[in-house]
Amino acid sequence: MDRIDSHQHFWKVDRGDYGWLTPEQGVLYKDYQPEDILPLLKASNIDKTIVVQAAETTAETEYLLALADENEFIVGVVGWVDMEDDVCLEDFAKHSKFKGIRPMIQDIPDTNWMLKDELGPTLRKIEELGLCFDALVKPPHLSALQKFVLRYPTLKIVIDHGAKPNIANGEFNHWANDIKKLSKSKNVYCKISGLLTEAKQGASQKDLKVYVDHLLECFGAERLMWGSDWPVLKLANEYENWMQMSEEMLSDLSEHDKAYIFGGTASIFYNL
């Protein structure tokens, strides 16, 4: 079974559509291209990746699909469309590597935005086309996400970065209860990714393990997928170190379960 990184990014600063990408972002304020990640994938025995949008433009989705055409290891693209006035979704869906969409919900002030009636036609079209929905949310969005999941019971949904729990401040209980409720819906999956950047600088696997263990208890290996969130990961640590920490946190699992988390689940969820 292929080992898959279910969540990574590419960007070019001079494209101009990354509004959040400023010099204040430090190590992130530079171009990150396929040739930059290839040595990291090789060192961590990763065969394939899913590339996820980082800009609220359809032009960036077109750019990522072009990279996917040029690079065999990129097996899926999760893009962006204007969910209130979509004119691109069906065209994108014609591309074999287009796997779904991700609105940047974490940056939308209205925590109930995902429940707007105006989004219904696009969401139903996503269901009809067999595409997926990446939910980029934080703990304050989880109550709305519970309603969203029930409203669209056949939509394939994956929660990015474990919903970004506030690990740095040790907040656990509310997040854990909401995650448990969400996991009861079998169309909901979750990514073990992005956790290091939610923890204090220099965090160890000990700081993260209680969160990872809870995700595992709730979703099971067959609805969990590993992701690097590279290069955002570089704000906290390096690719190889995150892989090593992840493998150690999951070392007690069976080979069957590890195979799902490190590739099988992503392959099934994204129809690879």
Topology, please?
Layout: E1 4-8, H1 34-43, E2 48-52, H2 58-70, E3 74-79, H3 89-93, E4 98-101, H4 120-128, E5 132-135, H5 142-151, E6 156-159, H6 173-183, E7 188-192, H7 205-219, E8 224-226, H8 239-249, H9 255-269
Parallel strand pairs: 1-2, 2-3, 3-4, 4-5, 5-6, 6-7, 7-8
Helix pairs in contact: 5-6, 6-7, 7-8
Walk me through what this model shows.
The chain is an alpha/beta fold and 272 residues long. The chain has a single domain, classed as Metal-dependent hydrolases (TIM Barrel, Alpha-Beta Barrel). Helix 3 links the parallel strand 3 and strand 4. Helix 5 runs parallel beside helix 6, helix 6 runs parallel beside helix 7 and helix 7 packs across helix 8. It is globular. The chain starts with a strand and ends with a helix.
The portion of residues forming beta strands comes to 5-15%
Instruction: Using the CA coordinates, give the radius of gyration.
Output: 17 Å
CATH-assigned fold name: TIM Barrel
For the record, the CATH architecture stands as: Alpha-Beta Barrel
What are the defining features of this structure?
272 residues; alpha/beta; TIM Barrel; eight-stranded parallel sheet; 8 strands; 36% helix; 13% strand; globular
Gist?
The chain has helices spanning 34-43, 58-70, 89-93, 120-128, 142-151, 173-183, 205-219, 239-249, 255-269, and strands spanning 4-8, 48-52, 74-79, 98-101, 132-135, 156-159, 188-192, 224-226. By secondary structure, the chain is α/β, with parallel strands linked by helices.
